[in-house]
Amino acid sequence: xxxxxxxxxxxxxxxxxxxxxxxxxxxxxxxxxxxxxxxxxxxxxxxxxxxxxxxxxxxxxxxxxxxxxxxxxxxxxxxxxxxxxxxxxxxxxxxxxxxxxxxxxxxxxxxxxxxxxxxxxxxxxxxxxxxxxxxxxxxxxxxxxxxxxxxxxxxxxxxxxxxxxxxxxxxxxxxxxxxxxxxxxxxxxxxxxxxxxxxxxxxxxxxxxxxxxxxxxxxxxxxxxxxxxxxxxxxxxxxxxxxxxxxxxxxxxxxxxxxxxxxxxxxxxxxxxxxxxxxxxxxxxxxxxxxxxxxxxxxxxxxxxxxxxxxxxxxxxxxxxxxxxxxxxxxxxxxxxxxxxxxxxxxxxxxxxxxxxxxxxxxxxxxxxxxxxxxxxxxxxxxxxxxxxxxxxxxxxxxxxxxxxxxxxxxxxxxxxxxxxxxxxxxxxxxxxxxxxxxxxxxxxxxxxxxxxxxxxxx
Length: 459
Description:
This protein is mainly alpha-helical. The protein has helices at 16-27, 30-42, 46-74, 78-88, 97-128, 137-148, 151-170, 173-199, 205-213, 222-234, 242-247, 256-284, 294-306, 310-343, 348-369, 389-416, 419-426, 430-458; strands at residues 378-380, 384-387. The two termini are 43 Å apart.
């Protein structure tokens, strides 16, 4: 049956803007504001950004278009969408695993994502209360260490974040997901622009912008290119069921191609604005731009603590982080919630509570891996060593499940699905369609395989 005559039982977005905000919210998360600046710092600044933008165009956008297309064609949860589409095209049932792998990966990611989001929530309170005023490096490191070493405090923040996520998702597509992103996404952009404006007053704005946009390809290594490819893939929330689930609620008359380009552009804009806000602050305080994952939680608080009005703008920054995390979290839980409603005769509220509780319980393992169970690790000789629970869940999803999900989506859309159905959903300019179809059949899968093989080495 054509999706033109099939509507999702969960409802649909009110229009293109709602879907754009929701999918952008899914894509924009801690990866844009927390991860992008520090991996840019570690890989040579502007040259890395150029490679990253190329990778967004040839990996991110093609897979996003394919994932939205599959979701809208099926009009069901990712699990049932893939079951329906494999059946329609008489493909082996093994391809249903795309839906299961994405939905389960999303739930696993949410379990530890919520823990990191809890750190951001804790920092909102600490920043607003002036804890970081005139703090030294040792003082800020001590605050971070005390937070991660306290399982009860981490559990409290993890619980609050999961409750917020569950409450939004329980209200449904238009009253929950859409209403949340209609408020959160504009506020997120406004806060980012405020922080960029603040960065212009630091005296190091041009230095930060130059670092971000001046291309020195001598600093670019093969590993840098692979990191750019990997981040381009992950930053758009691909392979975890979220975009497929959101695509199921997309009206038929909305262009998948135009919307995908708009989402990728907005996601990239947020990452670049985050860099424009963060690097001037880093340089103005003689901090290290390649400080790694600690840039946000252990480096920036030092800068905010020493600046005029730093308490205010530091608070805005961590509220921004929480908003970004929340818009991603609701998309991570949605695929499993939708499947429960479709298959287990439960209400949406019940399904949201069940899945929220599952993610909450699983997240406890990640919490304890930072303190009580920090010495509980496991290794496989020749592959990886000393992985905690948090490291294991992160490595399993980011390095294995998501790349495989993206690869299988590309193969299914480019080789296994009847092309007239693909054309019926994509509905774009013939030349653009041909370029996309070539990329999704040949180029994108090859590049995802390269990302996958290199990420396996990093486990």
